[in-house]
Amino acid sequence: MTSHRLASGGLIDRATPIGFSFDGRPLTGHAGDTLASALVANGIRLVGRSFKYHRPRGIVSAGPEEPNALVEKGRGPRREPNTRATTIELHPGLDAASQNRWPSLAFDIQAIAQFAAPILGAGFYYKTFMWPAALWERLYEPAIRRAAGLGRLSGAADPDAYEKAHAFCDLLVIGAGPAGLAAALTAGRAGARVILVDQDFRLGGRLLCERVEVDAMPGPVWAGEVEAELKSLSNVRILTRTSAFGLYDGEVGAVERLTDHLPVTPAGEARQRLWTLVPKRILLAAGAIERPIVFGGNDRPGVMLASAMRTYVERYAALPGRQVALFTTTDDGWQTAASFARAGSPLAAIIDARREVPEAVRALAGDVPVFLGARVLDAIGGQSLRAIDIVGDHGRRRLAVDGLAVSGGFNPDLALTTHLGHKPVWSDERAAFIPGDLPANVAVAGAAAGRFTLAAALADGARLGAEAAREAGHTPAETPAFRAGDEPCAVAPLFHVEGGRGKAFVDLQNDVTDSDVALAAREGFVSVEHLKRYTTLGMATDQGRTSSVNGLAILAALTGRTIPETGTTRARPPHVPVAIGALAGLHRGRDFKPTRLTPAHGWAKEQGAIFVESGPWLRAQWFPKAGETDWLQSVTREVEAVRAGVGICDVSTLGKIALSGPDVGTFLDRVYANTFSTLPVGKVRYGLMLREDGFVMDDGTTARLGPDEWVMSTTTANAGKVMQHLAFCHQVLWPELDVQMVSVTEQWAQFAVAGPRSRDLLEALFGPEADVSDAALPYLGCTTLALGPTRARLFRISFSGERAYEIAVPAGYGDALARALMAAGRDLGVTPYGTEALAVMRIEKGHVAGAELNGQTVARDLGLGRMLSKKKDYVGRLMAERAALNEASRPTLVGLKPTVAGVRLRSGAHVLPLGVPPTAEHDQGYVTSTAYSPTLGSWIALALVANGPARHGEEVRIHDPVRSGDVVATIVSPVFVDPEGARLHG
Amino acid sequence: MADPVSDWTHRGGFAGLSRRIGSGEGLKAVERAGLAAATVIARRGKAADAATALGRMLGAPVVDGGKRTSGGDVTVLGTGPGTWLVFGDRPALVADLTAALDGLAAVVDQSDANAILDLSGPRLVDVLEKGLRLDLHPAAFAADDVAVTAIAHVGVTLWMSDDRATVTLAIPRSLAGSLLHWLEASARPVGLTVEAD
Asked: What is the pTM of this model?
């Protein structure tokens, strides 16, 4: 038996010992322990060093509010810093280590900081390290971070998996204490769909930690019976080890710890699950958190919340001290005295700040020295509490103790009710913030509502559970009346004992003292929100659960205001720390977003393609052949093959939109800058689409395959945006037009077939019956032809400047089409080419693409001004006519060729006149696209240059300060290859 | 030259992605390949007439709303105002629809646009809730309801069988692999069998 474990009692499984280690020291606990309770049972007091002063710290609480006992849990990539020992379920092999100490917990060199404490007050760093500012980032901040900090991240990728889930219910009950259990049971019995969440691994809440009876059963037994009944109801879902962390519009976020309590995560299982819970009603039954009292040395290991001491004794059968005193201002504190008496270790003394305590309450303590109207002035000790100095009507005296239970009242855990902007109100009667204005579908029960007795909690739960069931259309048989006592729960508020010699901590986690609050008030930080930012009070993992109210009460006293006048800080989600991995779920790394694969992706992979992300798609970028050592070699080969023979390129990713209806012509005339209503059947037209502000949105083609069969193609990048735009135009601007449209991007696999031998390839593919002659299918013609078991769409369009076609088949035949094209073109030396070769050829041909359609260019800038129809109205027309968008000085599309062959041009470089300093005032434009042109044997570029078209032949400076490029180039026509279009028409 | 390729194999979106994970027992996913499909969009003001015409074709009333109607080998899914996604186990589906809806609706062939999975098995609901942000409880989702939603950022059209035992997902075929990534991760602890085309 470990040193501080009681011989009997508690809810631990004494038959199941569990070995674990703390700071490398092997220890034993039991199933049902937390790390904190196992440490208490082993008599371990010192568990960490504080954030700023490196003061020795012990366990303060028994729940998620713990400010001190933060540990690093696990090793290697699974090391998790800042984990609260009070919420870690003990499991075999648990390996925990204290934080923020060096070289060891007991001897920490930086503890010297506490002797410098007089100068390390609030704002010290900001005031001291202000000058010189340049040193802040490089010197001061890293140094401070090393000294002041908590746990260490592993620095390795998180090896665990996470998942998300969604659930819906009539009633979500947050907290499975007496109120929550009563509510879930009442609503569940009535047939309502109930979800009950609790952060603990066992249902019952305070019922597990108190010596109380419900319906004549001990609390844990009653909780067990309710749990069994709830589990038998198919309409009730219980989520244990689950923390509700945020209230959002209509939804609650919660994180379920699925495997954190297991020695090893089972293969394939997620470590944590992020729940989105969508309830019709929410019942918050999260209980209340005990408030410490601020006095000198109140951070000494051994000073603990009174309710937490009781939890260790009653639930875990672990004795937090053998000579324990109680400092209380509440009736509830005396219950701790009763617990210790029952455990055979009566308290050493009770110090109650109140002068009058009811006889019934006094009877709880038994025969213990009691000091009424007294206060603890100082707690004395180093790494463990040794004594307390008390002051009161009896004068001053020192008591030798090894533990001090502190009870300053209870703070209802209301954070979730404030996430949507609602504020709690202060109740003088209960000395606590209680629910004020609540979100529409939220109710609060039991201690969370400031109704602190067991009977009130059960009654609240039953009533509100029944109400929720009725609202969901169910009829509760009758509201059960659970029998329990109304234990005394009076409080006389006491937040702060002045006059102690030791440092009095308001916020243990952030090392904020009463004098820091006073300093902040003196310096004018009298708003609680300013106090929080200036002193860091209430920040970090515990979110001020034990510190905020004391801090604002002290601030109120200092500034002569009441607590309601001083107000509270606003709580924001998440209420508890949530691993980023849980928020990401499956969507990390390559799976951050879904990936779209073309129907012939497998074929491209077989061909050895290198893929590139293009919007949501993966596209073949180039197809390296054996012996090729860099991408330029492969791309050059592909370009040369297309320009000399024939190549094929998967263009399935282009957006495709089917349009139908009597008004398609009118509709297209309005969304395109050029005219489409005149497009005959069997023809394709290049189209330019503007935004409402007159700038170019997208370019593409629309083909008319039949009288009522139109198909628009968009760029890959803008496919979604164009569809959205068309839907908006139709639904909002011109609902009177009879047009139907739908995306068919997924329906069709499409390949470009380009090069002087492309028609030969098509003849081989389609066979002699099909007529693909120039007479039947001239440039910008389109048709459909039988192909194998299906029909193909054939468009004669070109991006490369060569004779070219695009052939589309139903996507299920996409892979077969790729193979058929390769087979049909074998004798022609058909070459698959990727997006890089595609880009090289379009740059050689002077076609604009994404880099030029960058949202800052108008049609005129791109040399497409003649496409703007003067005969009709269309989206963007008026705004495109603005004078400033039509000035010759606007950067306009040109080609660039370096004066020295072999010199590389780079996108993003600036264009400047020769002979001027490279400054912004001389800037005349920028390079948008560059390529090595195999056809010209030189690097070439497209650029947007002021007065561009008038400057062909002029030499300019291409300045690239980021990559140290500085070359001279000649402005030329953007069409480098075949300006007459002879190749295009064959 | 004659058709140089004899093998014009038609491939479903999940082709080659069959797999068995763990026990394979918790969830079964079977690809329904080879169904013909079309988007039907009513001409302006003709939604009711188009619904009636679809109903006549199915021999069961079709409404303009998010409902499924099955008749013979054809299933009509309401996916938007005056818009339906129609699946049929007949090659002439698009032609039949075009004839039946002449002047009433646009009919666009989508036979190859979707990858379709029938999901069933003892852990169907448990797996679906890991991706689906919809309440499939009978009180919230009728057996003939249709949802256009998303799972793991993949657009999904979802419907179920009359006995609620099979939930069908139709997704853009290019995203089949991404959907399977979610399905595999979500069903791994309970076991998954994928039977693809």
From this structure: 0.92
